[in-house]
Write a structure and sequence with these properties.
Oligomer: single chain
Distance between the termini: 31 Å
Number of domains: 1
Structural class: mainly alpha
Shape: elongated
Length: about 240
């Protein structure tokens, strides 16, 4: 356990040091932002769409006869903004982005492409890790913002189309307990999730060994560890910021 913690800390320090190699990682940033962020928007919005639908239906079922129905808007808005939007998106992208990064860098490691970068006088971490982690930090909040918007719109459409609720009532409930800090909280969490998913993928990919089998192990571990850390960070931010 201590060895793993030491290796992780050392990797983090090396990545931070590699950020000074601006000319190496900057040209890669736009490409990684597209792959990590833009290409992830459709799946994030798909997940948020059905999350909003289910939340509206389940909250209506739970509130029947006990709580005014316009609280459906409150529950949908609060739950998607504060919790399900960032966390579900982070978990899904841990599988999509984290696995991709670990497999790609792991394959480069076992095929000695990382060693070739060192021979060409490139810092491998500046070339491979820094642009991916930076792109995750920048693009994850944007992806989550799209997901949150989609989830709320899906809840609104479901409430007005399938429930006995007007648009005015849904918006009333949505605005009733909304605070501007809610959105900031969601974006802070999602930025931290972006750093976790990309850095864990880079760590396990960069330290891969054992050929194709090793790449498979590294990819699986990257997804599992990233999901676990996301859940821990979710609790951490709730304690610290709420």
């Amino acid at each position: 356990m201590a060895a793993v913690a030491g290796r992780t800390a050392g990797f983090a320090v090396d990545v931070l040091r590699a950020t000074s190699e601006f000319r190496t990682w900057w040209p890669q940033l736009a490409t990684q932002a597209r792959r990590i962020g833009v290409d992830s928007v459709p799946i994030a919005m798909f997940i948020a769409l059905f999350t909003g639908v289910v939340l509206a239906l389940q909250s209506s079922y739970a509130f029947t006869g006990a709580v005014p129905l316009y609280f459906v808007g409150t529950l949908v808005g609060k739950t998607i903004i504060l919790e399900l939007g960032p966390v579900l998106t982070g978990l899904v992208l841990a599988g999509r982005v984290g696995a991709n990064i670990a497999a790609e860098i792991g394959t480069m490691r076992v095929t000695e492409q990382v060693d070739a970068l060192e021979m060409l006088a490139y810092d491998p971490l500046a070339y491979l890790a820094v642009p991916r982690v930076t792109a995750g930090l920048i693009t994850f909040p944007i992806v989550v913002a799209f997901a949150v918007g989609m989830g709320i719109v899906a809840g609104w459409i479901t409430s007005t189309g399938l429930l006995d609720l007007s648009s005015q009532e849904f918006v009333r409930g949505l605005r009733m307990f909304y605070r501007p800090f809610d959105l900031r909280y969601a974006l802070i969490k999602s930025a931290s999730f972006g750093v976790v998913v990309t850095s864990v993928g880079c760590l396990f990919g960069y330290t891969t060994s054992g050929g194709a089998e090793g790449v498979g192990r590294a990819t699986t571990r990257a997804v599992v560890v990233a999901c676990m850390v996301i859940l821990v960070l979710d609790a951490f931010w709730a304690v610290v910021l709420l």
